[in-house]
Amino acid sequence: MKISIGELIVVIFFLSFIFLFSIWSVVKGDETNSVIENRKLDQRPDATLNNVLSGEYFKRFESYYNDQFPLRSEWIETKNTFEKTVFQQNLINSTFVHDDGYLIPTLVTNENNLKPENIAERINSFASNIKNKDVDIFFALAPNKTTMMEHKLPDYISSEANKLSDQLIKELLNIGKIKTVDLRDAIKPHLVEKNLYFYTDHHWKPKAAFYGYRTIISKIQESNDILNPLSINDFSWEESNVKFLGSDARNTTESYVKYPDTVTIAKPKFEEKKLEICYRGNCNRSFYDYRYLELPDKYTNRYKVYFSGDVPEGIIRNPNVSNDHKLLILKDSYANTMIQFLARNYSETRILDMRHYDKKSVYQYIEDNNITEVLFLHNINSLVTTPSLTNFNNTSK
Asked: Which InterPro entries match (predicted)?
């Protein structure tokens, strides 16, 4: 069989490229994670006789090559800069780039997502199945950035955050067993203030969480008058000097960032005895994990400064409070900025993230730890897209 010069050139080019790529991989080493994409990267596959003959090796090598392509992150940034400059795109990976600098993710559900009525049924069933009927159940819907800024989206961009929030609140109020709080009402009067939401991340900041905290405490006080709510003036609100490019910036890359964020630290002005804060087997923790301010990658998830991210279980014992009330927070990441406020009103606060906790059922957990109040604290996106948050029996995630 004769091989043409053109075919030979292609073969030589391909083999040379593989050779040079292999040298590059050896010199620089494979990366294990992509910070900008917030995921693990494929590693070099093992070449065995079976997977070479079956073709599996070449499929896996292609995926590995795509993930470990030289200067991959830089290519992604360059591509997005080009598209922004030439095509003036303002919708990138379902994130809308507003003229005021906010990167606003959209929320559109599909058939695999939970419907509001399904979520309400799960929470109602949970309340009905708790053995101790004296346990008060509260539900607070944390308004994510999409919910509070949906009005900024142009008509041609669909988003269902407020529609789904309305439906869920209505379903829970109709059931009547759950003491429900819509925290959108707590945030709306303060939207003119700065530092309520990150420009480049989908979360709220501590000051918005504090306004939500005040509304939750007011609701709890209707049946429990022993709580002494904190005031916003009880804290100094300090901004770190470290640039934060959050989840929405990772979607769009820094090319579309108008205002990089900083992390807000709420420091109490009052004196207090040291709280015992436990998670991941260590009881000498803090509400803030400052390690995430020190990591050099510009796309580091610095939101993990707040309670070290989504830990499966957290326990806070407060020697400054003498009441015998124990709060359990069932949460997603929106609670991470609020925990520091709620925990200062209870002798003991426990936190479970059902996406990661798998030791026992929540029912057993409540009974074992003499919980007196349960607070659901989630944003609408997590609830509809993550069924495990409302799966209270499953211990095999």
From this structure: DHHW
Domains of the chain by residue range:
5-73, 96-390
Q: In whole angstroms, what is the distance from residue 374 CA to residue 382 CA?
A: 18
Distance CA 243, CA 260 (A): 6
Distance from C-alpha of 238 to C-alpha of 158, rounded to nearest angstrom:
36
Nearest to 109 by CA among 149, 169, 165, 182: 165
* pLDDT tens string 303-323: 999 999 999 999 999 999 988
The helix-helix angle for 161-175 and 116-129 (nearest 10°) equals 30
Q: Are 376 and 140 in contact (CB under 8 A)?
A: yes
Joined together, the tokens standing for residue 38 give: 């917030």
Residue ranges of the chain with per-residue pLDDT less than 70: 1-3, 6-8, 10-11, 13-15, 17-59, 61-82, 85, 87, 394-397
Q: How far apart are CA 135 and CA 327, in angstroms?
A: 10
Pairing of strands 179-182, 276-278: unpaired
